[in-house]
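In the design runs reported in the main text, the only information available to the sequence generator was the tokenized backbone. The following block is the verbatim input for one such run; it is reproduced so that readers can re-run the procedure and compare outputs position by position.
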């Protein structure tokens, strides 16, 4: 490892083989990373290596976040929660006094193993770092937030209407929330449930071209208040539409005023303004034409559909069951909830988008095990029902049935109850934080767009720059993401084989003479270095 900390001060250097890091904290962090890939050809495996240069801008900008669905349950919870954390609010609940936290956020609360410490007697201790300590990332407390909504209620009324946060918390945020009012939104009625009509009183009038022009003006105006803008769709699920393949087709549909989902108009406006657009709902907003337009304009996109509760758990259960050698043969997922998301999904054409998104999350795990899955499909059923009484407190019931040894069956059932928006809001924070970071990064001189594929960890139906290679496995997605962050920061990536642990010398608690102690330390160090030499060769 060659580390050079260069900031117009003397540098320090340490040499190890695979990494070279150059850090200039005023401008950028640059890492030279040797990627090792195991390639299979004719049932023979060989290692292929390639050196990459990963460059990350050190400056963390003042970030503006524009939410589509600003006054919805997710939008109001996201905004209120960030203000509460920024003001360090504590609030009364029936369980006592609760302090505002970012629990549930991967970037703010999760850690990852970055190495080990070797003790004097050969003992080994893992070293973990917080995700947001690996590279310079924006602090959610510093977000400047605005957005659009089809309902014009201010954020105080929207937050009360959502009935997600504790009343004492909302009361303390009243003055801040009253100042936040949604911009008029793009809206096309036929792509959402008809039951949404009662909420509509704050929409942009005009044809496609005029609506896009107004959205671009809103974005442009907000740009004057911040250094960078990011747009996050957290509004209603729309119905899927036939795929729009080319930019020419898309431009023609806009010019002819063909009916298009509002999400497509937002994505188009964002790309034209060169700001990042993330799709948090399941509809097929990110058409090939949208991806190609983002590539042409050097903009960034990501999606689709927040992976927050039931589906995230499902991808972990797939890792567990299939990874353990059980043949997962039936997955039945039932939900009921009473918020506006549930109301919108109660009509078949919008539910279909969600069903497709939820049903594909096990595909890669099934396809990767030919010993268990040789053409015989599994049963996978997804049900969502609208039950007004439970509000945002979603009930998710799952049954996982597997075939086991000698024709036996094993069934695991889970029952999860949680405010849906309290699971979604931290993931929205993670998406904003990491998407902004990735827009400051280059690999081998090229940006990471147009699709920010590493955000797949947070989406049910990931869209990537390589559509033929999509991963849904929870453990693999997480490993890819943290390994990339570590590589960019110059932290060597351990193979985690623990081969060397078998040969470590175990010392007794007996006190040795200084000479014997020195010899033991020397012998232990030589053994360790020899193993490293064998492994690296």
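Verbatim output:
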């Amino acid at each position: 490892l060659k580390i050079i900390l260069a900031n117009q001060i003397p540098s320090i250097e340490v040499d190890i083989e695979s990494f070279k890091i150059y850090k200039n904290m005023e401008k950028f962090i640059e890492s030279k990373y040797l990627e090792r890939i195991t390639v299979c050809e004719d049932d023979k495996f060989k290692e292929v290596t390639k050196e990459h240069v990963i460059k990350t801008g050190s400056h963390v900008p003042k970030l503006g976040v524009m939410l589509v669905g600003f006054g919805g349950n997710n939008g109001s919870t996201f905004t209120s929660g960030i203000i509460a954390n920024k003001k360090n609010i504590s609030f009364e609940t029936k369980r006592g006094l609760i302090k505002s936290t970012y629990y549930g956020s991967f970037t703010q609360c999760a850690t990852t193993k970055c190495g080990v410490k070797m003790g004097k007697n050969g003992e080994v201790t893992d070293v973990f770092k917080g995700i947001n300590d690996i590279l310079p990332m924006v602090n959610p407390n510093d977000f400047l937030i605005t957005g659009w909504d089809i309902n014009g209620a201010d954020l105080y009324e929207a937050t009360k209407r959502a009935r997600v946060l504790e009343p004492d918390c909302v009361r303390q945020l009243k003055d801040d929330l009253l100042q936040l009012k949604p911009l008029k939104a793009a809206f096309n009625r036929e792509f959402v449930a008809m039951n949404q009509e009662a909420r509509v009183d704050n929409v942009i009038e005009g044809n496609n071209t005029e609506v896009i022009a107004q959205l671009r003006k809103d974005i442009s105006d907000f740009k004057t208040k911040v250094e960078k803008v990011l747009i996050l769709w957290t509004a209603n699920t729309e119905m899927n539409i036939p795929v729009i393949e080319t930019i020419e087709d898309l431009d023609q549909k806009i010019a002819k005023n063909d009916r298009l989902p509002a999400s497509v108009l937002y994505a188009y406006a964002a790309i034209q303004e060169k700001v990042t657009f993330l799709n948090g709902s399941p509809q097929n907003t990110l058409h090939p034409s949208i991806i190609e337009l983002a590539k042409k304009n050097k903009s960034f996109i990501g999606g689709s559909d927040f992976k927050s509760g039931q589906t995230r758990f499902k991808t972990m259960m797939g890792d567990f069951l299939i990874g353990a050698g059980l043949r997962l043969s039936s997955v039945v997922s039932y939900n009921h909830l009473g918020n506006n998301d549930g109301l919108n999904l109660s009509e078949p054409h919008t539910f279909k988008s969600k069903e497709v998104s939820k049903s594909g999350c096990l595909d890669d795990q099934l396809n990767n095990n030919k010993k268990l899955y040789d053409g015989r499909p599994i049963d996978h059923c997804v049900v969502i029902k609208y039950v007004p009484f439970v509000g945002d407190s979603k009930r998710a019931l799952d049954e996982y049935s597997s075939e086991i040894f000698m024709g036996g069956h094993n069934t695991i059932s889970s029952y999860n109850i949680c405010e849906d928006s309290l699971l979604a809001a931290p993931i929205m924070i993670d998406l904003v934080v990491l998407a902004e970071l990735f827009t400051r990064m280059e690999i081998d001189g090229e940006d990471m767009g147009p699709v920010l594929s590493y955000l797949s960890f947070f989406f049910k139906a990931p869209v990537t720059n390589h559509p033929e290679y999509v991963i849904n496995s929870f453990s693999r997605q997480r490993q890819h993401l943290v390994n990339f962050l570590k590589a960019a920061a110059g932290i060597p990536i351990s193979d985690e084989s623990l081969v060397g642990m078998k040969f470590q010398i175990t010392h007794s608690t007996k006190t040795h003479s200084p000479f014997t102690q020195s010899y033991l330390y020397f012998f232990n160090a030589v053994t360790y270095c020899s193993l490293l030499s064998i492994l690296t060769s």
